[in-house]
Design goal:
single chain, mainly beta, 2 domains, 6-stranded antiparallel β-sheet, 17 strands
Length: 180
């Protein structure tokens, strides 16, 4: 009987120790707040894990390596989750494309914290690595707007003329090869 109880205890402890949860938070540099995000999913092999609708908490099968795909700022990265509760915080981009269909003339351009970009504007990842850099006049991009991967390599270069019209676009994979 003692052996059976010990065996059941060992099984339940092992099952409990494999419980893995994940919570993603987003940090808004404009509002200066951090809040739970539900705009992501995790992948491991062919299986996709979505956050619950109420809490944003994701329950996973086992510890290990997962691919985090955040829908609010196009982040895709490997994360390593251990048994128990895990979390990560992603910084929301402060420079974003913005559209105001009700303004006259209609405004389409770039904004930083809700205001049209002016001069040379930069945005950074949480670790301080440059995420985006460009020159703007009243939200209109002028010249090159460059986007970077988290490791600092160039992801995309968009070149605009003085009127803010896109003239060319070059995209690169994470190895630096141009994507056509």
């Amino acid at each position: 009987m003692k052996t059976l109880i010990a065996l059941l205890l060992a099984i339940s402890v092992n099952a409990y120790s494999q419980n893995v949860t994940f919570q993603l938070f987003s940090k808004d540099p404009c509002a200066k707040n951090i809040k739970p995000s539900k705009l992501f999913y995790l992948k491991k092999g062919n299986k996709t894990y979505n956050p619950s609708h109420s809490s944003g908490l994701t329950v996973l099968d086992a510890p290990g390596k997962y691919k985090l795909i955040a829908l609010f700022n196009n982040v895709s990265k490997d994360i390593y989750l251990k048994a128990g509760t895990n979390s990560d915080t992603l910084h929301i981009q402060s420079i974003q494309e913005c559209h105001d269909p009700y303004s006259k003339p209609r405004f389409i351009g770039y904004c930083k914290c809700g205001e049209p970009c002016n001069g040379i504007e930069e945005d950074f990842y949480a670790d301080g690595t440059l995420r985006e850099k460009g020159e703007f006049k009243n939200g209109t991009p002028i010249g090159a707007v460059t986007f970077y991967y988290p490791d600092g390599k160039i992801q995309e270069i968009r070149v605009y003329n003085q009127a803010g019209i896109l003239e060319s676009r070059m995209r690169f994979d994470e190895s630096g090869n141009e994507i056509f």
